[in-house]
Write a structure and sequence with these properties.
It holds the Pfam family Acetyltransf_7. It comes from Phyllobacterium ifriqiyense. InterPro entries: Acyl_CoA_acyltransferase, GNAT_dom. It is a single chain. The chain is an alpha+beta fold and 142 residues long. Helices cover 28% and strands 35% of the residues. It has four helices and seven strands; from the N terminus they run βααβββαβαββ. α3 links the parallel β4 and β5. The longest helix is centred in the middle third of the chain and has 15 residues. Bound molecules: coenzyme A.
Length: 142
């Protein structure tokens, strides 16, 4: 496999994002594309992964979702997207990064830790999500 190109997603990636990011509806996907809040990994013209992010308090970059297609996992694509996003957030003035994971999803948590995140606490969302959500931060000033 050639080294993937990491870039900000645009409207030509919309159909792929709708197919591979089912956690949010199409109007939110449109909003994130318009706001430059998707990082996408491309092998040639073919998307193989994405990061979707937002801004907690309008100030702290929050990685809402990271995804690599199953057949391309474990080849460094997730890390490459993360590093691209981290540099982008630094350039935009981010001092701290945030992300989170459902408490029983241990593999993504290990992946977050391998990218320098540290657990900061757990929150329950009542009937919306029975399991707690584990929150992580990465302090870029350290
Ligand atoms: C989590 C995910 C994005 C990781 O992407 P990836 O491209 O497979 O990961 P990478 O190849 O970049 O891994 C980078 C490093 O993390 C490690 N790593 C990867 N997956 C890991 C896991 N499940 N547990 C622990 N470490 C892991 C790799 O060994 C590598 O370390 P190294 O550089 O020291 O060898 C991918 O597995 C995925 O899409 N999972 C399903 C979606 C998901 O769970 N998203 C997170 C929701 S919170």
């Amino acid at each position: 496999m050639t080294d993937p190109n990491i870039t900000t997603a645009n409207s030509t990636h919309k159909a792929w994002l709708i197919e591979h990011d089912p956690h949010v509806d199409t109007s939110w996907i449109n909003r994130c594309i318009f706001g430059g809040e998707y990082i996408i990994a491309l092998c040639g013209d073919s998307p193989v992964g994405f990061i979707r992010y937002s801004w907690f308090w309008g100030k702290i970059p929050y990685m809402d979702m990271v995804y690599v297609v199953p057949e391309q996992r474990g080849r460094g694509i997730g890390r490459k997207m993360f590093r691209h996003w981290e540099m982008l957030m630094l350039a935009k003035g981010g001092d701290v990064l945030m992300t989170s994971s459902v408490v029983d999803e241990l593999e993504p948590q290990a992946w977050h830790r391998s990218n320098g995140f540290h657990e900061q606490g757990r929150i329950s969302f009542g009937s919306f999500q029975p399991q707690s959500e584990v929150f992580f931060i990465k302090d870029l000033s350290c």
